[in-house]
Design a protein that fits this description.
The complex is a heterodimer of chains A (498) and B (384). Chain A has a single domain, classed as Farnesyl Diphosphate Synthase (Orthogonal Bundle), CATH 1.10.600.10. Chain A is built from 25 helices and no strands. Chain A is elongated. The termini of chain A are far apart. Chain B has a single domain, classed as Rossmann fold. Chain B is built from twelve helices and 15 strands. In chain B, α5 packs across α7, α7 runs parallel beside α11 and α8 packs antiparallel against α9. The chains are: A mainly alpha (498), B alpha/beta (384). Chains A and B meet through α23, α24 and α25 of A and β6, β13, α7, α8 and α11 of B. Chain A: Keywords: Lipid biosynthesis, Lipid metabolism, Membrane, Steroid biosynthesis, Steroid metabolism, Sterol biosynthesis, Sterol metabolism, Transferase, Transmembrane, Transmembrane helix. Chain A: Pfam families: SQS_PSY (PF00494).
Chain lengths: 498, 384
């Protein structure tokens, strides 16, 4: 699998964003969110093993002994987090139960936030997820020939309402093939949801299928991965921006988010872009191990001749500068993400969008000025994840605080010798300024009392003020004398004593 | 910061203080489209002279001198940028008192005289005045995202006499709007101007670099600070002049939400950065190689204590101010950034080029000045 196919391979990463296959923010999210769902059935042994694997190791114990704050955050989250809404299993059809089982099979960290969604959107979002996941599974499977794959991707949207449509062309190694083999469960549930949701899901499926087909077709001649920044953003648009658009339209249609979000499409685009770009930055080592590269050539070619050179020891400084440029690009999206989140009305929807965003800004901070991203997988600790989740399930103001905190952390790590030093600074400043404009800490009314008085500056006033100043100066002089005298005496005493 | 062409001013313009730091940038931008007839009034017109511009020497506090020049130059637009330099530290109290009197004389009396003469001479349609963003700020407390609703501060809330006189001058100018026939006025409040020819901001920073003070930082550096590249400030002045001329040509008064005359506008780069990072950017551009790990951070409280002790010691020794003053500590620890949406909306102002480009140009200019031209710039860096 060369870089060529990496484009294709990457597309699955798209769904990775909102609903990703590779877990983005550590398995912590899943297992922790899961722990609040003890009443939910755990249909597969896999889930159990994943959960069991989270039994603290000796290393964890030592780590949390020295990071009590993080331990506290974990306990806090486990004790206090209550789902906003819960599934009502008694009313679920057999097909729907099967859908939830697929959801649990295929998604790691989104399973819980989806299942906590408002009842109005619970099924539509679950079905939407499974459809995109299936699209992704087809796209990702290298055992399917391009002749078969391309029309399948492009026409996928026509199958989603066929109650008997299934597909078993996936290779036996494909771990999510079961969803496609039993896809009729999904289509039957799809047909039950409201028409206005169907139209949205249909439209996004069609566009994403076409986007994936284009990449799959170009995979042969696109030998060096993503070339320009424009390509990079377009790629992120197909795999993440479209998901953002789809869910936003669902939220607005369900009246759970401000319709103004649709008037400013750049906001939902940025939501997807920030998540996807952060993943691409964080996964750079792993992608390179798999001979894939999503960092645009336009960026890395400024620092090294070949992408893989970024990982060489002699290029450490160059690699760091290159990663700064990547972080800067993602960071510039943060302001619009905050504005987006301010437009979400319902708590479960807010949690759904805010948790990944907080994780993303924290991950971005972790990757910034961190050479470890070129040596291994990095991820935020479970303690930080818990703290972020607690903070992201309350309100926008608290999420703004998270963004401000991480913007400041990023700016503190910033190095003046880095070519992007000031741009990163400006980006952090932009985040702070935008928070200040959403939640002003001061207004003309909060200024000190009397600030709006206008004193005429005539000579009389001036003289009075001067007299007062002179008085104040005298006071200071006496104070100074007293202090110096005391200091002098102490010094003298010490000298004598010595 | 290659500016897109400024909006054309095809009439006679008089730039007061046109040989100063900001003034000569305005003159140079006015001359770019070259259909403007530009003249300059300044106390001394030996520095920063540009071709195709007429220069007049005069004191703006003198009614007769100003009237004479206005009658000669017959400007339709006046851009008033003249202001005495802010006194730096290391001065005796007598010098500081002298400076105070100078501020009042030039900023308040000078501006009042200019407004009166311009109003009475009859040909002036637009009067643009450079105010300062510090008129709403006491130079101590934090100011976050301040806009034009913030009131102008007066003593004792305003602790900087310089800012107080600027505030007074601004009121005189804005109060004169439509008072003298149909002469329109506007005031611009730039924040933290720096750029080529800068006599205060950048040279002070470069001096600190030369003294090897780059390994120190006062405060935690979470304070955002607005700066403005001089080219952007000059551009805003021209936009304001054009906007006043457009209003002047109208037969009806403009609506409140699009009014420019009689209004004040904050002007910045629109990119607040953390104070010490701006400073470090300047230092790094000048050649500093300090890594973030090498910086010794002095907390704000410790800094204030050290500064107080120093100030007292110096004061006892004869009324001089030391290098590290409480004011400096406070200045480098405070948040100060503004909202420039009003200027964006009503003047069509958009900063041309970012802070980084401005810093590169500025430091480059100083470096070239020091190496190439010798003389003058070296003196500036050393003295201030």
């Amino acid at each position: 699998m060369g870089c060529a196919s990496s484009m294709g391979e990457g597309c699955h990463g798209g769904v990775r964003i909102a609903f990703r296959r590779r877990d983005n923010f550590g398995d912590s999210t899943k297992s922790l969110l899961h722990s609040c769902h003890d009443r939910l059935p755990r249909p597969t042994s896999r889930t159990f093993s994943a959960f069991a694997a989270k039994m603290p190791s000796a290393r964890d114990v030592v780590y949390y002994l020295f990071h009590i704050q993080e331990l506290r955050a974990i306990i806090h989250w486990k004790t206090w987090h209550k789902p906003v809404h819960e599934r009502d299993e008694s009313k679920e059809s057999r097909d729907l139960k099967e859908c939830y089982r697929f959801l649990d099979l295929t998604s790691r960290s989104f399973v819980a936030v989806i299942q906590e969604l408002h009842p109005e959107l619970l099924v539509p979002v679950c079905v939407f997820y499974l459809i995109l996941r299936s699209l992704d599974t087809v796209e990702d499977d290298m055992t399917i020939s391009i002749e078969e794959k391309e029309p399948l991707l492009r026409d996928f949207y026509t199958h989603i309402d066929h109650e008997n449509w299934t597909y078993d062309g996936n290779g036996p190694e494909e771990k999510d093939r079961e969803v496609l083999v039993k896809f009729d469960c999904v289509t039957r549930e799809f047909n039950k949801i409201k028409d206005e949701y169907k139209i949205i899901i249909n439209d996004i499926t069609k566009r994403m299928g076409n986007g994936m087909a284009d990449y799959a077709k170009n995979a042969g001649d696109n030998s060096s991965g993503v070339k320009t920044i424009e390509d990079y953003e377009l790629y992120c648009h197909y795999v993440a921006g479209l998901v953002g658009e789809g869910v936003t339209r669902l939220f607005v249609t369900a009246k759970l988010a401000n319709p103004a979000l649709l008037q400013r499409p750049e906001l939902m685009e940025s939501m997807g872009q920030l998540l996807q770009q952060t993943n691409i930055i964080r996964d750079v080592w792993e992608d390179n191990e798999h001979k894939r590269c999503f960092w645009p050539k336009e960026v890395w070619s400024k620092y090294v001749d070949e992408f893989s050179d970024l990982f060489l020891l002699q290029n450490r400084e160059k690699a760091l500068q290159c990663s700064s440029e990547m972080v800067l690009m993602a960071l510039n999206r943060a302001e619009e993400c905050l504005l987006y989140m301010a437009g979400v009305k319902e708590q479960s929807v807010f949690n759904f969008v805010a948790i990944p965003q907080s994780m993303a800004i924290a991950t971005l901070e972790l990757c910034f000025q961190n050479l470890a991203i070129f040596d291994r997988n990095v991820k935020i600790t479970k303690g930080s994840a818990c703290q972020l989740m607690t903070e992201s399930t309350q309100n926008v103001q608290l999420v703004c605080e998270v963004f401000r905190r991480y913007a400041r952390k990023i700016h503190r790590k910033n190095n003046p010798s880095d070519p992007h030093f000031l741009d990163i600074n400006v980006a952090c400043g932009k985040i702070e300024r935008s928070i200040e404009s959403i939640f002003p800490t001061q207004t003309p009314r909060t200024l000190p009392h009397g600030a709006d008085q206008t004193v005429a500056m005539d000579s009389e006033e001036e003289a009075k003020r001067k007299a007062q100043e002179a008085e104040a100066k005298k006071d200071v002089m006496y104070w100074a004398l007293a202090i110096f005298a005391t200091l002098g005496i102490i010094t003298a005493v010490m000298v004598v004593a010595a | 910061m290659a500016p897109d062409k400024p909006r054309n001013v095809s009439t006679s313009v008089l730039v007061i203080g046109g040989c100063g730091f900001l003034g000569h940038h305005i003159v140079s931008q006015l001359l770019e489209p070259s259909t403007a007839k530009v003249s300059v009034l300044d106390l001394r017109t030996t520095h920063n002279r540009l071709p195709n511009c007429t220069y007049y020497d005069a004191d703006i506090t003198s009614p007769t001198a100003v009237r004479e020049i206005l009658q000669k130059a017959k400007p339709q637009i006046i851009i008033h940028t003249a202001s005495p330099p802010v006194v730096n530290d290391g001065q005796s109290s007598a010098q500081r008192n002298g400076a105070k009197q100078l501020y009042y004389k030039v900023n308040v009396e000078g501006t009042r005289n200019l407004i009166e003469q311009a109003g009475e001479v009859g040909c002036v349609k637009a009067f643009v005045c450079t105010s300062s963003a510090s008129v709403v700020h006491d130079t101590v407390s934090n100011l976050a995202n301040a806009d034009e609703r913030w009131p102008i501060l007066r003593a004792p809330l305003q602790r900087e006499y310089y800012s107080e006189t600027k505030g007074k001058a601004e009121e005189i100018v804005l109060h004169a709007n439509r008072k003298y026939g149909d002469m329109l006025t506007v005031a611009l409040r730039p924040a933290g101007i720096f750029g080529e020819g800068d006599m205060q901001f950048t040279p002070n920073l470069l001096k600190a670099y030369e003294k090897g003070q780059t390994k120190f930082q006062l405060g935690d550096n979470d304070n955002l600070f607005d700066t403005t590249y001089v080219g952007n400030v000059a551009y805003a002045h021209i936009l304001a002049a054009v906007a006043l001329m457009e209003t002047h040509a109208l037969t009806t008064k403009p609506l409140d939400h699009e009014k420019v005359d009689g209004e004040a506008f904050f002007i910045t780069n629109g990119q607040p950065v953390y104070f010490w990072d701006f400073v470090r950017m300047v230092w790094a551009e000048a050649g500093d190689k300090t890594e973030p790990g090498q910086v010794w951070v002095i907390g704000k409280d410790t800094g204030l204590m050290l500064a107080s002790m120093g100030e007292w010691a110096f004061w006892l020794a004869g009324g001089w101010t030391p290098n590290l003053t409480r004011q400096k500590v406070k200045y480098s620890c405070m948040t100060r950034f503004y909202c420039i949406d009003k200027a964006r909306r009503r003047l069509g102002y958009e900063p041309r080029g970012g802070v980084e480009e401005g810093v590169k140009r500025t430091v480059g200019w100083f470096r070239n000045g020091m190496v190439g031209r010798g003389g003058e710039e070296v003196v500036i860096v050393v003295i201030i």
